[in-house]
Amino acid sequence: MIKVVIVDDQEIVREGLKMILSLHEEIEVIGEACNGEELLKFLEASKPEVILMDIRMPVMNGIEATKLVKEKYPEIKIIILTTFNEDEYIFDVLKNGADGYILKDSGSKEIIDSIKSAYEGNVLLNPKVTLKVVQALNSMNKKDAHSDNVKEENLLHLLTQREREVAEHVAQGKSNKAISEALFVTEGTVKNYVSKILEKLELSNRSELVLYMQKHS
Q1: Percent of the chain with pLDDT over 70
Q2: Domain holding 23: CATH number?
């Protein structure tokens, strides 16, 4: 059973998600919260494997909540549920460690698949959202080219060939298990590679690595 907590300030959204998730035996909704502060209190007593998190909430929004949850409970996976017109928040939640980002109007299968994917260690981005990430990064790069500011250094040259291969697999959203099967190594070896990659590129998590690879590859 994958234990899930739903965080959204709209009760109708929480009820709808609970109804969808209740139809799947492998998923159990163990709690809900209407803002980030309420979520943090809940986590003091009970730990889910996956959190479905809204972005815009009163008291404490999803961006700040994601940062605080990941700092204290890095093993908990966080999937951001939001609307398409909130794509300006993509970078903030991913840099804060979110493990996925899907739209609220996604079908039940996509929501279920996103929970399973995050649980297995994948970084999941809705295809439409991924396109916007790439477009935004391209726009940022063009601005940088005409700016006097120092451009972010591309550190990919510091990676070994195998580390580069692992990084590219991570950028595709693959889990450690999937990468180990593709490269014929153990999951522990992949985990060690990912740790070394993050250290060399001066990154904090897999989500940042996905963005970094999209920007510099």
Answers
A1: 83
A2: 3.40.50.2300
